[in-house]
Design goal:
The complex is a heterodimer of chains A (223) and B (395). Chain A is of the alpha/beta class and 223 residues long. Chain A has 6 helices and 10 strands. Chain A has one domain: P-loop containing nucleotide triphosphate hydrolases (Rossmann fold), CATH 3.40.50. Chain B has 2 domains: 196 residues, no CATH class; 119 residues, no CATH class. The longest helix of chain B is centred in the middle third of the chain and has 38 residues. The chains are: A alpha/beta (223), B alpha+beta (395).
Chain lengths: 223, 395
């Protein structure tokens, strides 16, 4: 399903300062797996997620999703790939704070120009699934952290993607909300979604629903 | 079937403007003001140009004035007979005209003397002779006045007659026989028409003297040749042709336009500072929003379309508002303040109405000077950000 082959990624801070975020990474994730990337801050977890989502390109190596090499996709094709295949839950949610809950959730559907009824059906489905229907018209900036995360999860699922990517999803949540998020993950796994999570939250380690874990350290796989 | 135009993108663009309502309102106000100023100026200049052209069209082809020591003196009416002898001359008429200072209102009126038995050099006078019985006007004596004159006289309670002061200090009562409409409002506004003999008495002129002589030439191409011949016969005259007058009017008008141009450059400068500010980069929130949209699957052209709608809605609405305000300001309220910059091209106080001239070119010109520039100023920096890797923008 998802394969990273000999992937290297470096960022140029300036001419004399190049950071090697990933070094010769090889990862293979099967369809329907819940895969956890562990590691401290700066270990390269988010970079791996970003490469899988085609938000950035590797310096060298290949990223293959469903037999398609996405690491060389031109920008517009990469956007299309994300829209059709990826639901990304960002660490800071990346919602538009001045829009309402329903407007934020509908954002990925805007360029598709779907008939109004179809868009509404998709919206209602995810709002119900992630228990946010009662806040449909609330402005996002006025919501609690947990509610904002539910909006972000709903937005990531509105287009029914095959792959869900979550970057430090519990970093801004208390334990109760974190456990609630794990329940949501189980629901998504039950729907046969492939889920990739980057986290350093111990709550995720050795969970029953987690299929595989790997640990990253300074851009290298430790285990 | 799905519409080709994505209404969701338009809705998003409209919401984006409403989300930043104070900023949008500020930009729209500046934009509307600029469009309003620019359109008003074009409307005013179009109207005045039309009015001036109409005035010039009614002017005689050649005017012959007697000059002595560089000053304009009355000319002998017998000169008319000599001019009529010149080949190509169709007609020559001795005019009696001048200004009369109306102290009560502090304005000058133009007074023209005409003779019912002469061929008239202006259509206005032909109409007056048709409408009024000139024999009666000579006997009473009476005058026909323009609308502006009538109004000013009425304000000073001279509704039915007026007492002109002659050079010797005695009074000459002249009744108001009626009001005429000139070919142009500039003309009818300040003009009084009366029999030549009455006017000569008021101005204290000799019976065989005239203010100047107007000449009509059969072939308009020969105006300059005829003018040269008159000058040859009468070296003590100044010959003014329509072309000279046209240049003179245009020079004064261009001077007035120049003053406004200086004011306008300041307004344009302000507009371009805003444009520069927009084009030089987006705020961190705007960049982040573009990054988020890209990260959730919007293509570059989706983002650019949305930004285009956003800029177009704001600028087009401001443009329409500016044009409507300009229409109301110029044609309904007669352009107070701005009109004073352009009008007043003679020493007379003019209070004519700006005629409605609908010029589609003007509207297109203003549109292309404003809307596409603003749209480009929004699109270009958005495109710069949208082409970056989404990860780089939202990180």
């Amino acid at each position: 399903m998802i394969e990273l082959k000999n992937v290297n990624k470096s960022y140029e801070i300036n001419k004399n300062n190049i950071v090697n975020a990933l070094q010769n990474i090889n990862i293979s994730i099967q369809e329907g797996e819940l895969f956890v990337l562990k590691g401290a801050s700066g270990s390269g977890k988010s970079t791996v997620l970003s490469l899988i989502a085609a938000l950035s390109k590797p310096t060298s190596g290949e990223v293959i999703v469903d037999t398609k090499q996405i690491s060389k996709l031109p920008d517009n094709f990469a956007c299309e790939y994300r829209r059709d295949n990826i639901g990304f839950i960002f660490q800071k949610y990346n919602l538009i704070p001045t829009l309402s809950v329903s407007e934020n959730i509908l954002l990925p559907l805007v360029p598709l120009n779907l008939p109004a009824q179809e868009a509404q059906e998709k919206l209602q489905r995810v709002m119900k699934m992630f228990d946010i229907s009662h806040k449909a018209e609330a402005i996002v900036k006025n919501l609690s952290g947990g509610e904002q995360q539910r909006v972000a999860i709903a937005r990531a699922n509105v287009n029914d993607p095959k792959i869900i990517i979550a970057d430090e999803p519990t970093a801004n949540l208390d334990e109760r909300l974190s456990l609630s998020f794990i329940e949501i993950l189980k629901e998504l796994k039950a729907l046969k979604k492939t889920i990739v999570i980057a986290t350093h939250d111990p709550l995720f380690f050795n969970l029953d629903c987690v299929d595989r874990e790997i640990e990253l350290h300074k851009g290298n796989i430790l285990s | 079937m799905r519409s080709k135009i994505n209404l969701y993108l338009m809705e998003y663009a409209l919401n984006a403007l409403l989300r930043e309502k104070y900023k949008s309102f500020f930009i729209m106000s500046i934009f509307t003001l600029l469009t309003f100023l620019l359109t008003s100026v074009f409307f005013i200049t179009n109207s005045i140009k039309y009015e001036l052209q109409s005035t010039v069209d009614t002017l005689p082809q050649i005017i012959v004035q007697k000059i002595k020591a560089g000053r304009h003196y009355d000319i002998d009416e017998n000169v008319v007979d000599d001019i009529l002898e010149i080949a190509g001359v169709d007609d020559a008429v001795a005019r009696v005209w001048g200004y009369y200072y109306f102290e009560n209102a502090g304005v000058n009126f133009s007074i023209v003397g005409i003779d019912a038995y002469e061929r008239q050099y202006k259509k206005t006078f032909e109409n007056i002779i048709e409408d009024f019985d000139f024999e009666t006007l000579e006997q009473t004596p009476s005058m026909v006045v323009g609308r502006g004159v009538k109004e000013i006289m009425k304000q000073s309670y001279y509704d039915e007659y007026f007492n002109f002061i002659k050079p010797d200090g005695s009074l000459k009562r002249v009744d108001v026989a009626g009001v005429f409409d000139g070919q142009t409002q500039l003309e009818s506004n300040d003009m009084i028409v009366m029999p030549k003999e009455t006017l000569k008495e008021i101005f204290g002129m000799d019976e065989m003297q005239a203010t100047d002589i107007v000449v009509k030439v059969k072939n308009p191409q020969e105006v300059s040749t005829v003018a040269a011949k008159i000058k040859l016969i009468y070296p003590d005259t100044r010959i003014i042709t329509t072309q000279d007058l046209q240049i003179s009017y245009q020079n004064i008008f261009d001077y007035k336009s120049g003053i406004f141009l200086a004011l306008f450059v300041i307004a344009i400068f302000t507009f371009f500072i805003i444009i520069y500010d927009k084009a030089s980069g987006l705020s961190s929130e705007e960049k982040r929003e573009i990054g988020i949209l890209k990260a959730i699957g919007w293509k570059i052209d989706d983002i650019l379309k949305e930004k285009f709608y956003e800029a177009f809605i704001l600028s087009f609405f401001a443009y329409i508002l500016g044009v409507i305000l300009a229409l109301l300001y110029v044609y309904l309220f007669q352009a107070p303040i701005l009109r004073d910059i352009f009008v007043g091209y003679s020493q007379l106080k003019t209070s004519f109405e700006l005629p409605f001239i609908f010029d589609l070119h003007t509207l297109f010109l203003v549109f292309f000077l404003s809307v596409p520039i603003y749209v480009a100023a929004i699109i270009i920096p958005s495109w710069k950000v949208a082409t970056l890797e989404a990860d780089e923008v939202i990180r």
